[in-house]
Specification:
Elements lengths: L1 E9 L9 E8 L5 E6 L10 H4 L3 H6 L5 H15 L3 E5 L2 H15 L8 E5 H8 L8 H8 L10 H13 L3 H10 L2 E2 L29 H23 L5 H14 L2
Parallel strand pairs: 1-4, 4-5
Antiparallel strand pairs: 1-2, 2-3, 5-6
Helix pairs in contact: 4-10, 5-8, 6-7, 9-10
Length: about 260
Amino acid sequence: MKFLIYDLESTGLSVVTSEILEISILDYDSEEVIYHKYVFPYRQKIENSDIHGIDLDVIKKNNGISQFDLVNELNELFQNIGDNVLMIAHNNNGYDQLLLEYTFKKVDDKIYHKVYFSDSLPVLRNVMPKLDSYKLGDIYRSIYTDNSLNFHNAKDDTIALLKVLKSCNNTLVKKKLLETKRPAFSNPDIKKLSLHILYGLEYCKAHRSLKTIYDLSDVFIILERQATIRMLRDDFHVYSKYKVNKIIEQLALVIQ
C-alpha cells in the first residue's frame, strides 16, 4: 500500500458545487511532492480568493490545467504507481474525498479502483487525545514553533500534516490509517461495508435491518432525498443538518 498525503484548495465549502483550484500530493515515506497543480474552475470567478490567495492570475502564472485534465492526470498517476494507494487528508471523510469524487463525477469518470482513502482527523484524535483543538494548524503549532507554513496552501498543508503524523508513533499511525481506510464511493466494494464508515454515521447505534452501505443506498434510491432525510432523523437519530447533508452527499456518490 502506497501512502500519499494530499490536500485541496477549492472555490467553496460545498463538495457538490465547489471546484478544485489547487492540489498537492506528498509521498508519505519519501516526503517528496509527487504532484502539484493549479486548476482552472469552470466558472470564471473565484469568490474566496481572500482565504487561499488563489485567483485566475495565480492559476495562469502557474500553468493551470483544466478540471478534465486533472482527472486524467490523477488516474494516470495512480495507475503508474502499480500498487494500492492510500490517499490521506485531514477531514478527508467529510470534505476532500467527496470533493475529489464529485470532480471526477462531473466529467463522467471514476477514480482508479486501487485508490483508498483515510482521514487523519479521527486518527489524531485517537493518538493525541488531550488536545484542545484538532484543526491542522492548531495541532501543528502545538508541536512546532515554525511559522513559515501557510495553512490555506495545498502544498504547505500536506507538509504540515506529514510532520504532525510523523511526530507520533509511526507504526501506530499507519496501523490506524489502514484500519479506517475506505474505497472510493464509485468502487462497488464500498457497498459491502458497514454504514459506520459513512461520515455522520460513525457513532450511531446499529439499525435493526439496515447494516451495509448497500442497504442504505437502496433505501435512498427508493425513498429519494426528503424521505431518506426523515429516516436518518427518526431511525438513526441524526439531527445535525450538516451531518444529514453529508450522508446524502455520500449516498449520491454510491448510486452514480
